[in-house]
Structure formats: C-alpha cells, structure tokens
Amino acid sequence: MKSNPFKIQEGSVGDAKVAGFVSDRDSGNYLDLEAAGKSQYLGKFFDSRRSVNLSMVFLFLLLTLFIRAVYLQVIRGDNFRNIAEGNRIRSDIIPSNRGLIYDRFGNLLVKNESYFFLYLTSDLLPEDELTKEKLFDDLANVLKINKDEIKERINTNNVNGEVLIYENLEYEQAIQLMIMSEDNLSIKVTHEPRRQYFAELGLSHILGYLGAVTEDDLEDGKYQSHDRLGKSGIELIYEDVLKGRDGIRHVEVDALYRDKNIVSMTEPIDGSDIVLTIDAQAQKKLAEIMDDNSVRYNKPKMAAVVLDAKDGGVLAMNSLPTFDNNIFTTVLNQDDYQKIISDPNAPLLNRAMSGTYPLGSIFKTVVGSAALEEGLINASFTVRSTGGVTVGNNFFPDWRPGGHGLTNIYWAIADSVNTFFYSIGGGNNQWLNVGLGVDKMMDYAKKFGLGKETGIDLNMESAGFLPSKEWKEKTYGERWYLGDTYNLSIGQGYLLATPLQAAVLMSYFANNGQVYQPHLIRQTEEDKIIEDFDPQLALTNIISSDNLNIIRQGLRETVARGTAQSLQSVPVKVAAKTGTAQFNNNKSPHSWLAAFAPYDDAKIVITVMVEEGGDIGLAVTIAREFMEWYFSQ
Q1: Is 456 in a helix, a strand, or coil?
Q2: pLDDT in the model for residue 191
C-alpha cells in the first residue's frame, strides 16, 4: 500500500518541515509583530492628508459628470431630441399665396402664377466626385445651362443645406427632374407661386416688384431663405398685409431619406387682398397715350398723375420710360437688369413722384394767390406787358415778344404773362414798388404743400426744393438778387417740385379749397374684415373763398381764351394752367400742364410733365387726349 500513489496517507505528518504542527492549536496563525517590525513596516500606504485630497478629487470628478449629465439631459435635452427626430423627420415648407391687388372696380392688377422650382440639398449630394460631376452634367443638360453655374449657386446660395438652382422650369424639364429625383435624393422639384404683372397697364412704378430676402429679413423669423418680399411700390408698402403665412409639413423618412408617411401638417394662410384707388382702364389708356406721343415726338421721358378731385385717390399714374417688373419675379436675369440700370433715361425712376423739376408757370397760381391774400393786389390791379422787364443789364422777357398788353390777374393766369408776376413777386417801379419777396412766396409755397412730401403710400417720394436767401449765400457764396426773385415768381430758378405736388396744388382750386392727401389704398382685407380707407385732409383755408374764385376763373379763362384753348374739345368744361420751365440753356424746356374738370364740379385733376418737351404744347396734347376719352365713357 505504501507504493500505491492514490492512497491518502493517514496518521502523522511525514514532512519534517512541518513537524510539530497541531491543528487544534491553530499552529501557523501566530505572527510575531515584534520580529516583523525589525525587518518591514505594516501600515497605510498614504497618510490622512493625502487620503482627503484623493477623496476631494474623486468627488469633484463625480460632480462634474453629474453637472454634465444634467446639462445634456435637462437643458439641452429638447435640442438633442429634435436632432434625433430630424434624422427621421423632414420638414417641408408649404408656400402661401400672396394677397391679390385689385383696382377700384374689382379688376385684377396682379395675379399669382405657380412655377416649378429646382432645389439641391448639398448634404445629400453624392460623396464620390465622379458621381457628383455626372449629376451636374445631367442637370446642366436638362436645364440647358453650364454646370459651372450650378456649382456657383451651390457655393453662394447654400442656406441650411438647400440651394435654389433654378426657377420657372418648363413643364418638360420639371418632369425629367422629378424622374431623376427618384434615384438621387439631393434633387427636389417644387411647385411655388410667384407674381405675374400685367405690363400693358403701365403699373410697374406703382405696384413695384418682389426681391430675394436678405440676412436681416431671415433674422426676424418671418421669412424663409427662398421667399420673395416687396422691394418697392405697393408690394413694399403693404408687405405685411399681402404676405401670407407659410404652412409646414412634417414627413417621416427612412434611412435613405425617402418619404414614409406624413406625421403632421399645418395649412398655409394666404395673404390678404387689397383694393387700390386705381382705375385700371384709365391707367391703361393714359399709358397708351403717353407711349404713342413719346414715340411720335421722340420724347422718352415724361410723367402724368390723375387724382380723384374729391378725395385725393390716385386714378392713374404713369412714368416713362418704364420697365417690366416681371423680370424680378424669378431668378434675376443679370443681362436684363444691367440693361435697365445702365439706361441713361433711368427707367426705374418714378418721375411722377420722385423726379423734381422747375415748376414753371404752374407756380404762378401760388404767387397770384399770395398777392391777393396779402392785399398786395386785387382783381382790378393791372400791369401793361410790353415784352419784358429790364433790371440793370439783365432783361426778363415775356414769352410773347411784343407783350400781352394791359393785364389783370385773370389774363395774367390765362395767357401766362411773366411781367405781371415779375411785378407782384419782386416789385416794379412802374406799377408796384414792393413785391411779395422770396420769403413770402416761399411761405405760401409751403402752405400749398410744396417743399415737403405729400405722404402718398409709396416709397421714394421726393420733397422737392424751396430756395431761400440764406441757402443761396451758403451754397454759392453770393447774395440773393432781384433777378432771383423774378425767376422764382414765374417758377424758374432754384425751385423744384414733382408732378404729384403739382397735382396736389391744382386740387386746391379744383375742390374749392380742400385737398386730401393723395393715396393709393382704397380697401384692405385682414382676417376677412374689409376696411375702407379714410382719406386725410391735407390742405385747407389757405386763401379766402373770394380770392380762390379769382384764381379759379383765371384757370378757366386759360382754356376759354388763353394758352390751353385746345382743351375746349373735351366734352366738359376744363380749367388749366400751362407751363414751360427752363432748366438748361442748351436744352429744350420742360412742358407742363395742370388741369381739372368739370370746372363746376371737378371729378379729376390731371398733371402732365414732359422732360424737354419744348413749347409745342405736348403736355396739353396728352392731357387733352386723356380727358376726351375719360369724359366720353
């Protein structure tokens, strides 16, 4: 058995090294600490101070992790949740329709027309350069443009990863691109509304146009990156009324960005419609008459305003040359735009309210009113016109070389007698020692609304200009001369006004001393509530009714026997004032006419100004043709 290796040994321990071991006494559990201390140390690895520091570090790390967890889960939780949702939810904007614009009779002045648009999502473009280049080649072939244009638009117009590549796609192009989008998710074809203007109405300056949003517009949160908003005219002034509210569609997509189902949708709200004071037929006729005469007489620059004499509403307003505001409705064609802005005749300028010109003899109504009201003259006061007035070495002529004969205020207005107004404006030793003077004339000019904006609801209105002695001394370093006063008294020299201001001035005499602020808005519709515009009284009680009737009679005699006798062909009685205004010795003077009709109960006031129209009465011709048509309807 001793040789059997698998037998468990019993009895005493055979190993001498553990001799004397007795299990009941726990032999081997005793440690001689005294002996151990002689050769080694048994105790803490760190002292108390180090343990505290280590614990503080450990607690700081735990606190940092806790704060970070709170920040991520509580403070930024919604944001990260949205990002996570964005990985499977796509938000599509549903464009709203812009409000429509109507004339006073309900005729449509602008409409919305839907176009196809091509967008590229830059984040979804192929990563492989060869595949990306092939995509650009295919798009360029469909769009018939150079692929470098596509790359440039991606580089310059990349907003939130989505880039507008092309507007106003043809139907066949849109279908091709839709088919391509099935295999390339970066391609997106939409159907969106854009403005369509009626060019034949000549409303470009009034309605204005839409343009792309700027970074400042995007900061407000009211616009999307590819929206269009009003940049001029009615489109700008009533932007908040016309603009609708876009809808939004949340679509669940799969890992390949393909639509699965609609999660939620908010319907768009269309903009509110507005009604203007414009008479579309009158506007169209005025534009046709001006175009015809512009071509016939080779006078490309002119303006006309037709106001409702009762309340100041603009019935028609046109400025030549004009422009096609439809070029701004889609991606701006730079060639067309450059052609417009490089035109020396400045087609973007609304001459009717932004162009300023010497007012010419139209201003004689102001000077005559001032002289009557100040008691300087009366209806019996006369001056004998013999051809002009000499002051020192300077001669100030009448327009008739032989003069106009014995002249009172009626004939002075009717035949536009310069000598009469030289005398009451600056004085004349023969008939009137002391005239009104520049200060008094300018005081009355301000009362009649000159030298300040009329307040019409359009942008870029000019205030015109009223000179003074102080202004001339400061600007030219010389004093104000009597000759300056003479020139001012017939509307020449430094005085500047707009055709719209001239129409407001004539409205005072047309409406028996009451003028309402010119305006274009007639009705607005907000939240399905239609509100009528309340005209604001602008001018009243400038001169007495007796003096007002004297000027009115002089304006009537202008047509009956004076400088505007051709207006007798109009079916109703017309009162008017003609004018020619010198502005450059080497160029023809501007041609003016301001009139109202019918004389006894005025319905309209019309002002026409033809730049360099000369003395052939072109402004009278245009006004006559319009009033013949208007009062025969």
Answers
A1: coil
A2: 84
- What is the band of 32 on the pLDDT scale with cuts at 50, 70, 90? very low
The CATH classification of domain 288-323+352-630, taken from the options 3.40.710.10, 3.30.420.110, 3.40.50.300, 3.30.420.270: 3.40.710.10
* pLDDT surpassing 70 at residue 620: yes
Collapsing DSSP states into helix, strand and coil, what is residue 21? Answer: coil
Q: What is the 3-state secondary structure (H, E, C) of 32-48?
A: CHHHHHCCCCCCCCCCH
From its phi and psi, is residue 325 left (phi > 0), alpha (psi between -120 and 50) or beta? alpha
Q: Per 3-state DSSP, what percentage of the chain is helix, strand, and coil (rounded to 5)? A: 40, 25, 40
Q: In terms of pLDDT, which residue wins out, 547 or 262?
A: 547
CATH topology of domain 89-275: Penicillin-binding protein 2a (Domain 2) (3.90.1310)
Nearest CA-CA partner of 207 in 301, 323, 86, 294: 323
575-581 and 590-597: which strand pairing?
antiparallel
**Average pLDDT, integer, range 34-52:** 56
Q: Phi, psi (5° rounding) for residue 102?
A: -120, 160
Tokens at 628, concatenated: 């013949």
Indicate whether 523 pLDDT > 70: yes
Residue of 510, 537, 517, 539 lying closest to 601 (CA atoms): 510
Q: Mind giving me the DSSP string for 514-558?
A: EEEPPB-EEEEEETTEEEE----EEEE-SS-HHHHHHHHHHHHHH
User: What is the arithmetic mean of pLDDT over 47-64?
Assistant: 77
Domain ranges of the chain: 89-275, 288-323+352-630
The pLDDT score that the predictor gives to residue 47 is 63
Could you tell me the two tokens for 229? Answer: 């908003």
First to last CA, the chain: 145
pLDDT category at 285 given cuts 50, 70, 90 is: very high
Query: 409 vs 12, which has greater pLDDT?
Result: 409
Find out whether the peptide bond into 321 is cis, omega within 30 degrees of 0.
yes
Q: How many CB atoms lie within 10 A of CB 358?
A: 25
Q: How many residues does the chain have?
A: 633
Identify whether 268 is preceded by a cis peptide bond (ω within 30 of 0). no
Hey, which residues does 607 pair with through a beta bridge?
A: 305, 594
pLDDT at position 76, please?
A: 66
Q: Say if strands 108-121 and 302-308 run parallel, antiparallel, or are unpaired.
A: unpaired
Residues in CB range of 369: below 8 A, 6 or more apart: 444, 448, 542, 543, 547, 548, 551
Vertex 558: Cα angle to 552 and 563 (nearest 5): 155
What's the rounded Cα separation, in Å, for the pair 317 and 500? 9
Q: Any idea which of 78-82, 349-353, 415-419 has the lowest mean pLDDT?
A: 78-82
Residues 6+ apart with CB under 8 A from 460: 232, 350, 353, 354
The confidence score (pLDDT) of residue 45 equals 53
Give the separation between CA 184 and CA 188, rounded to whole angstroms: 9
Residue 252: what pLDDT?
Answer: 83
pLDDT one-digit tens code per residue, 297-321 = 999 999 999 999 999 999 999 999 9
User: Rounded to whole angstroms, how far apart are CA atoms 200 and 489?
Assistant: 40
Structure tokens at 192: 């969106």
Q: Distance between CA atoms of 297 and 320, rounded to whole angstroms?
A: 13
pLDDT digits (tens, 9 = 90+) for 96-148: 889 999 999 999 999 998 888 898 887 788 888 888 889 989 999 999 888 88
Which tokens in the block code for residue 99? Answer: 């409000």
CA distances from 308 to 281, 453, 608, 625 (A): 15, 19, 15, 18
